Amino acid sequence: MSEKNHNVSRRQFLTYTLMGVGGFMGSAMIMPMVRFAVDPILRAEAASDMYELTEVENLTDEPQSFPLSFEQDDGWVTQQVEETVWAYLDGEDVVALSPVCTHLGCTVSFGGDESNPDQFFCPCHFGRFEQDGTNVPGTPPTEPLHRYEHEVRDGIVYVGRPQSQQ
Amino acid sequence: MLQRIYDWIDDRIDITPIWRDIADHEVPEHVNPGHHFSAFVYCFGGLTFFTVVIQILSGMFLTMYYVPDIVNAHASVEYLQSEVAFGMIVRGMHHWGASVVIVMMFLHTLRVFFTGSYKKPREINWVVGVLIFFVILGLGFTGYLLPWDMKAYFATQVGLEIAISVPVIGDLLGELLAGGEIIGAQTLTRFFAIHVFFLPGALLGLIAVHFIMIRRQGISGPL
User: Fold this and answer.
1) ipTM for the complex shown
2) Where are the domains of chain A?
3) DSSP label at residue A100
């Protein structure tokens, strides 16, 4: 047994085993903590619940605002959240729009600008949207108002979460 | 590749002497378990430091979910332990590690005592070690309240009454620690701040002094 015939020297062998065991122990320590830290981004997004908004017969051709209140789960906290939904009938179809301006997040209202009574208007930077939520070219917003997912059951409109139209 | 990156950096800022200075130190035969197995008793100081490192790391991660607020503290602990992936393990590391630190530190103290390592010229390091001991006890005491359950609440009540029993300044001390006259919202935030910022800062400073003195004075001789 001479040292020369070994492909792996004693020193290398020790280095490999110590690094291996050390790496294993180190990762056993770090891995749970890293997984713990990234948990929120790996959590499967819960299918959004649908909440009752109003009865279909309350809707007209003209957008009206309806309050929407629902329970939102936020980690260990469940809280009551209030939102406003602008809804109208487009023929037979229900259209439910979010009043959050797609420019910088102010709140728009229908007919808020006297000179454009049939448009949504944002008072912050004078952004405007058509009745169907399409942003008016030449005003600050760069995409249409978000639309709520919705369904109609037994004459009642249920809405989910607003979705981007792009 | 790694070697080339290292060389590139070393070429410019000469880092080799820095880590050489930290890594190269004398380990006498009588403290090396490879020579005499009974020398494992000399490992307890290092093991204490190792568990302290685990405590700091796992504690840092726990604060990603924990809130020091009387309404939500317990709910957030329950959430991170039962809902978050590996929550039981990360909180378990911190929970059990707290006891392991105390045990290791106690064994380290016994070793230093029975090998007479506290004698001249190492008296100052013994004093610093005792200060570290108190800081660790403080970390254990303040951390115990944070889950904000019944055990935490009453353990803190007992601890505060011990502080109040101190002659003359007791009442003042108790009120200062609790941040008021009851154990409540201000006690929790106060204990959180002490547990997470004040004591770890003090601990790291004392440990640095502890280690620098070991390097200065070397490891004490054999019995």
Assistant:
1) 0.71
2) 3-42, 48-163
3) B
Q: Each residue of B55-103: pLDDT tens digit? A: 999 999 999 999 999 999 999 999 999 999 999 999 999 999 999 999 9
Residues with Cβ < 8 Å from B98, sequence gap 6 or more? B55, B139, B140, B143
Residue with tokens 């037979």: A92
Set of chain A residues whose Cβ sits within 8 Å of the Cβ of B84: 36, 39
A122 and A134 Cβ atoms separated by less than 8 Å: no
Give dist(CA B186, CA B179) in Å, integer: 5
Domain A48-163: which CATH number of 3.40.50.10140, 3.40.640.10, 2.102.10.10, 2.30.30.40? 2.102.10.10
**pLDDT tens sequence across B169-219:** 988 898 889 988 888 899 999 999 999 999 999 999 999 999 999 999 989
Instruction: Find where tokens 């049939």 sit.
Output: A118
CA dist A49 and A150 (Å) reads 10
Task: Give yes or no for A47 touching B (CB within 8 A).
Answer: no
Nearest CA distance, B61 vs chain A (angstrom): 6
